[in-house]
Amino acid sequence: MDTYPLLDTITSPEQLRSLSVAELKQLSQELRAFLLASVARTGGHLAANLGTVELTIAVHHVFNTPEDFLVWDVGHQSYAHKILTGRRGGMDKLRIKDGLAGFPKRDESPYDTFGVGHSSTSISAALGMALGARQLGQERKAIAVIGDGAMTAGMAFEAMNHAGDEKADLLVILNDNNMSISPNVGAMNRYLASLLTGPLYSGVREGSKKVLDRMPPMREFMRRAEEHVKGMIVPGTLFEELGFNYYGPVDGHDVAGLVKVLRNLHALEGPLLLHVVTKKGFGYEPAEQDPCAYHGVGSFDPEQGLVSKPNKKPSSPTYTEVFGQWLCDQAMADERLVAITPAMREGSGLVSYAERFPDRYHDVGIAEQHALTLAGGLACTGVKPVVAIYSTFLQRGYDQLVHDIALQKLPVLFAIDRAGVVGPDGPTHAGSFDISFMRCLPNMVIMTPADENECRRMLTTGYLLDQPAAVRYPRGKGPGVAPESGLLPLPVGKAEMRRNGKEVAILAFGAPLTISLEVGERLNATVVNMRFVKPLDTQLIQELAEQHNLLVTVEDNVVAGGAGSAVAEYLHQQGIMVSMLHLGLPDRFQGQGSREELLEDAGLTANAIAEAIELRLQGKTCATGPASIISDQTGKL
């Protein structure tokens, strides 16, 4: 469909509310076609968005957004929401620098009531809005749309438990696109959902409660009887126990049915849960057949679908692939190894391992906190846990990292993917802080590989240690150093001298080594591959400080509290006087963009680093270097 006659007339949900049910069906078709064409041009999250077209239309049709609060969980499914709320014209710049964010973002639109990107936050946020409106005496509805995967996180149940206790006016829409309940969706369930949300059922239930309140034993008997009857028809007993009135399941692709049910729910008070069944990729057969492949896509031809491009010559592996191969090799060598992932099997490179070693593989769902403490418990038995996790998601398990692993000095290896700048997913997915929040923990060993082979060797090093260890590596490929086939460790805490120069010494941590070597050639500077953030090679650092006028640290972590800070702290403790320049990621949240654009924005290109060093040698600061911190250590302690 190349034309969108009805969609062309919609610039806000207010116009959407004047449409008839028949027009809503037409709008669903047009919106789905536009989504497919748009994402095929720009890339982005496709399958989840195709699956929530009717739900998005129905919610905006029934509720008075943005006066009513609508919170999307994660936000993978928010493209239709963006289009219907006046941002259709910006979809051609989705997820690129200075364009539309790939997730709801508060400063982008008043319809984006809460910024998201991480899973399982919607119910807590919507509950806060409901309670805030109640406190201010405002009659505003709060709606949280959450997926069945996001419901696996403890935070979602914590929020529901609190909402049930508060009796808050909150509607949780469970977008179920994975549970095996599809046979329950049909005419009978549409009828039951309509009946259960209608005024007759609700009136009878509330009236009965008032009468039975005077007869507590009978009221308890009737409550349990109602739960058992409903439990035989719908899978909602768990939510009822949490204090929610459960309705559904309903067909999430029947826009007329959704509108009817949502209108009924709009008139009800208290915590409500609507169970909606959808299909990822709905309306586009390739995405329906393989929703995982179409979860996040680059540009493609919708007529052909995703087509594998033949490699004319062997391609160097990504860091993720290096980890996946190492994991299988290490598992063959040591049957104690067990791998853990919080619902990131494909992204973290665990597909092959999961198939080969299913008895030593645990996908815990979107439950990062549980993943870490589970690893700690496994380590207590003599098993050797490896936690594969993105840097941004490790943040969610920080208390467990501190209390359950580092404090007890348990031998858990963290394979931290997507460290440093990440790209189009924006600040919610950036891995900018892991060095800073891990470096302050006793008992931790932190490694930063500069190439693929070094990554493999560091994974072996961390695995063999009898204490917690982390190997953090960036998204995508490295410089192309082929990994060795063996399982060879590195000496702990030892750096590698890569170039001898004069006056300036560049201490590179991880991926920035490549550009540091380029700068070293240009300025005739010493260049060191530091390898370890903790423990540092303090002997070499002291020698470099004594032999050079300026030490420059370079890292793809925020400067604040990062690896450069560790070097400065050591020298200051030793009373060693030397000028220092710290280069890394800035003290702000960077927006979305390509990895190259974000590195340029941070001043982590060869030209920017060379300019910052030359200006420092002249006693000046670089006005364009947002990430630079310059310090003179001029006195002994």
Summarize the structure.
The protein is an alpha/beta fold and 637 residues long. The protein contains 25 helices and 20 strands. A 7-stranded mixed β-sheet has the order 9-8-10-11-13-12-17, with helices on both faces. Strands 14-16-15-18-19-20 form a 6-stranded mixed β-sheet, sandwiched between helices. A 5-stranded parallel β-sheet has the order 2-3-4-6-5, sandwiched between helices.
Structural commentary:
- Pathway: Metabolic intermediate biosynthesis; 1-deoxy-D-xylulose 5-phosphate biosynthesis; 1-deoxy-D-xylulose 5-phosphate from D-glyceraldehyde 3-phosphate and pyruvate: step 1/1.
- One of its GO terms (cellular component) is cytosol.
- Catalyzes the acyloin condensation reaction between C atoms 2 and 3 of pyruvate and glyceraldehyde 3-phosphate to yield 1-deoxy-D-xylulose-5-phosphate (DXP).
- With 637 residues, this protein is of the alpha/beta class.
- It has three domains: 7-297, Rossmann fold; 319-472, 3-Layer(aba) Sandwich (Rossmann fold); 496-633, 3-Layer(aba) Sandwich (Rossmann fold), CATH 3.40.50.
- Helices cover 41% and strands 16% of the residues.
- The strands form four sheets. It has a seven-stranded mixed β-sheet with strand order 9-8-10-11-13-12-17, sandwiched between helices. Strands 14-16-15-18-19-20 form a six-stranded mixed β-sheet, sandwiched between helices. It has a five-stranded parallel β-sheet with strand order 2-3-4-6-5, with helices on both faces.
- Helix 21 (513-523) links the parallel strand 15 (504-509) and strand 16.
- Helix 6 runs parallel beside helix 7 and helix 14 packs parallel to helix 20.
- It starts with 12 loop residues before the first helix and ends with a strand.
